[in-house]
UniProtKB/TrEMBL annotation:
Protein name per UniProt: Ribose operon repressor
Organism expressing this protein natively: Xenorhabdus hominickii
Gene3D superfamilies attached to this UniProt entry: 3.40.50.2300, lambda repressor-like DNA-binding domains
Cited PROSITE patterns: HTH_LACI_1 (PS00356), HTH_LACI_2 (PS50932)
Every HTH lacI-type domain range: 2-56
Length: 333
């Protein structure tokens, strides 16, 4: 296997010149570049990423921890993160936690052992990671995307879920709907709690009663929305509208209504949250609260790269503003 010294010898230049040509980090004349590139091609030389990372003390690699889910919201965010990594010359190592705390710990150790330049955290396991665990490794900059198991300070990017819950519920109220239920997400997650709080605030501000059984706690998955909607339909006074804490549960609610011989929105109006890619293609297209997933991916990478270059700066908390997307899943009374 050819080395940089072999390339330098064949091109008749120093190894530092070869390094400058490969990394494009210092001026080298076009004539010398041609000689170096010709030598690289002739020797079939491949630069060592490991050697380069040891020299510049960077691996140009970002690690990302994410919960595996049937909900395409996570996939869409990861896609945005990967695209923005690529545009900035970084590689992304993605670790799925599969909802397993042990796997989460193992994935964290793997990423830290590989000396990733930074971590993006978007997972939902219950177990907190102690400071002592992280102190076994050199400081790694990290950005939390909504929720993290780390008991340490970090930059945080999150959705204004309280406002989003209010937007969704107020939209139903303004359409003349009064018996409104909420299929909330798991209450150990801040976004789920805040969306539920937004629903309660909007109902309270409108002077509307939340009937017994109208608050159901789901799991942010399709099946959770299905079972929750089935429970709501069994009530002596079923709701005429439902705010689902995310689009996945809204889709599950669609299926429960279909199985019961009911339709959206004529029998029950549905509004979701996230605006995942499939939302406009449902029958009827889903009215929902949009989260800027591409912007989230870009902001996460921008924030992490700033943290890498400025490790001593104060942690930042960035809040994205949700937006109502009106389609056809809510009737007007």
């Amino acid at each position: 296997m050819a080395t940089m010294k072999d390339v330098a010898r064949l091109a008749g230049v120093s190894t530092s010149t070869v390094s400058h040509v490969i990394n494009d980090n210092r001026y080298v004349s076009e004539n010398v570049k041609k000689k170096v590139n010709a030598a690289i091609e002739e020797l079939n030389y491949a630069p060592s990423a490991l050697a380069r990372s040891l020299k510049i003390k960077q691996t140009k690699t970002i690690g990302m921890l994410v919960t595996t889910s049937d909900n395409s919201f996570y996939f869409e965010v990861v896609r945005g993160v990967e695209r923005n990594c690529y545009e900035r010359g970084y590689s992304l190592i993605l670790c799925n936690t599969e909802g397993d705390s042990k796997r989460m710990l193992r994935s964290i150790e793997t990423l830290l052992q590989k000396r990733v330049d930074g971590l993006l955290i978007m997972c939902s396991e219950h177990q907190l990671i102690s400071k002592e665990f992280l102190l076994r490794y050199p400081f790694v900059p990290m950005v939390t995307m909504d929720w993290s198991p780390f008991d340490v300070s970090s930059d945080v990017i999150k959705d204004n879920s309280l406002l989003g819950g209010e937007l969704a519920t107020n939209y139903l109220i303004n359409r003349g709907l009064r018996k409104i239920a909420c299929i909330a997400g798991p209450q150990d997650k801040t976004p789920a709690r805040q969306r539920l709080a937004g629903y309660r605030k909007a109902m309270r501000d409108a002077g509307l009663e939340i009937l017994n059984g109208y608050e159901i706690y789901g799991d942010f998955e399709f099946a959770g929305g299905l079972s929750s909607m089935q429970r709501l339909l069994q009530l002596s006074e079923p709701p005429e509208a439902v705010f689902a804490g995310n689009d996945a549960m809204a889709i599950g609610a669609y299926q429960a209504l279909y199985q019961a011989g009911l339709s959206v929105p004529h029998d029950v109006s549905i509004i979701g949250y996230d605006d995942i890619a499939i939302a406009p293609y449902l029958t009827p297209p889903l009215t929902t609260i949009h989260q800027p997933k591409d912007e989230l991916g870009k902001l996460a990478i921008d924030t992490l790269l700033y943290r890498i270059d400025n490790p001593e700066s104060e942690p930042k908390q960035l809040v994205l503003t949700p937006e109502l997307i009106e389609r056809s899943s809510v009737v007007s009374r």
